[in-house]
Design brief:
8% helix, Porin, 16-stranded antiparallel barrel, mainly beta, globular, two-stranded antiparallel ribbon
């Protein structure tokens, strides 16, 4: 298996260098991320079916992705991402709402599987003739922060011009978080913070299948200093399920985001405000808590919904450093359907991309606080289970508090090593359990 993966990597690398560097109609990239994570044992007075195991444990996850892009007609491009994923998170990714590895999914079978992660068409419609400058990779603290007409070759992007002011339509299968709730400092668990609470707004129950992807229709209006995007997406047939519900009417999630660029004393930033509304056959926490043996799945009914809002800030504080802040809340009355069991969330952190004068390295430090609604809390205390958490009871509720620190060291042009440490207090909102220490080493290759 390792020999096959290595041979594919070498072949793709050579193919990129020879065939695609000269052809602006194509883009081909590759990534592989291996995360090995360990937690020591810890003492607990009781546990349930979804509790984090109290024994010492080491688990490893793997994802391998090929990113293919092809320019079609004027303003249009097609992107396809076949992906292989395998391995497992600690305790099969259960027992912590803000789980510790963003590359892990709630899948029972850890065997590697190949699937189509993304397959979508993007169509730009120019709203002006301004086509100068550069829209590409952001640099912390750079003076020129706004999209001005050119796209770099990269993951799911093709080198060439893009309109400065435009409408963009995107249709197909992708992660809704590819376009919404982005943050320069905390968004990608393959290269940045690994905790689920730091990938996105924790209380945004964003639509996705078990692996994090779904079919979407998205419209984006982009100007130089601000943007508005809206999308409608398919949801799973059941909570955290692998199969999407194609009966769109009454089973959908809709997302709206407004983004504004900022400039404070020459240092750039962004403010994003997000809202979502999901409707499908959810269960009710209140109704489930009234049962002798609480079971959220037994209360599912058509027309239930979940809605919420979130704010997302990023701001450079120096040429090579920046900070971020997110806060989100949802109504918390009906069951979590796709992401994780968080109803209120706050996170903040600091990132430096030139530690010790090493401009290709990065250092990050962040903290996240997660909470759940009164209805959700009562359901868990009565012995109920969600798809991520459940300790059989919850007599001593407390906010789940997570701290994370990482150092990403660039070893070669294509290889990065990142030691990572996370400290979790009150896992699954349970003051009787923990604290938990999680140590990890991430190996990431990309070209």
């Amino acid at each position: 298996m390792k020999k096959v993966v290595c041979a594919c990597v070498i072949a793709l690398w050579c193919f990129c260098d020879i065939a695609f560097t000269q052809n602006q109609n194509w883009s081909l990239h590759f990534q592989q991320t291996v995360i090995s994570q360990h937690k020591p044992s810890f003492k607990v007075p009781y546990e349930g079916a979804n509790s984090l195991s109290d024994t010492a444990e080491t688990q490893t996850s793997l994802t391998t992705t090929i990113f293919i892009g092809r320019r079609l007609w004027s303003g249009a491009a097609l992107f396809i991402n076949p992906e292989l994923a395998g391995g497992s998170g600690l305790s099969q990714a259960r027992g912590i709402a803000g789980f510790t590895n963003g590359e892990c999914f709630r899948i029972g079978n850890p065997a590697p599987a190949i699937y189509m992660a993304r397959m979508f068409i993007r169509q730009d419609i120019a709203l002006s003739d301004e086509r100068n400058g550069k829209l590409g990779k952001h640099v912390i603290g750079e003076q020129h922060a706004y999209p001005t007409g050119k796209e770099d070759d990269g993951i799911n992007s093709i080198a060439g011009e893009r309109p400065l002011n435009r409408l963009t339509f995107v249709l197909g299968k992708f992660s809704i978080a590819d376009f919404f709730d982005n943050n320069l400092y905390a968004h990608d668990p393959r290269t940045q913070f690994m905790n689920w609470s730091l990938m996105a707004n924790g209380a945004w129950d964003y639509p996705a299948n078990t692996r994090g992807y779904t079919w979407n229709a998205l419209l984006e209006y982009v100007r130089e200093k601000w943007a508005v995007r809206v999308a409608t997406s398919l949801v799973p047939t059941y909570a955290n399920g692998p199969t999407l519900n194609w009966s769109w009417s009454g089973n959908q999630s809709n997302t709206l985001e407004i983004e504004k660029s900022t400039n404070i004393m020459g240092l750039v930033g962004k403010v994003r405000v997000l809202g979502f509304y999901t409707t499908t056959i959810m269960g009710s926490y209140d109704l489930a808590a009234q049962m002798t043996s609480p079971d959220i799945t037994a209360t599912r009914a058509t027309g239930r919904n979940k809605y919420g809002v979130g704010i997302n800030l990023e701001q450079a504080v120096a040429k090579d450093a920046g900070v971020f802040f997110r806060a989100s809340i949802n109504d918390g009355k009906n069951e979590t359907w796709a992401f994780t069991e968080i109803d209120q969330a706050i996170s903040a952190g600091y990132v430096n991309t030139n530690p010790f004068g090493r401009q290709d390295d990065s250092f990050g430090l962040a903290v996240a606080l997660n909470g759940i609604s009164k209805e959700h809390r009562n359901y868990l205390n009565k012995g109920g289970y969600g798809f991520i958490i459940g300790d059989s009871k919850l007599p001593n509720y407390a906010a789940e508090t997570i701290s994370e620190i990482y150092y990403s060291a660039k070893i070669t042009d294509w290889l990065t090593l990142s030691p990572n440490y996370q400290f979790i207090m009150n896992p699954a909102y349970n003051k009787d359990r923990g604290p938990v220490h999680a140590f990890a080493l991430r190996v990431h290759s990309e070209f």
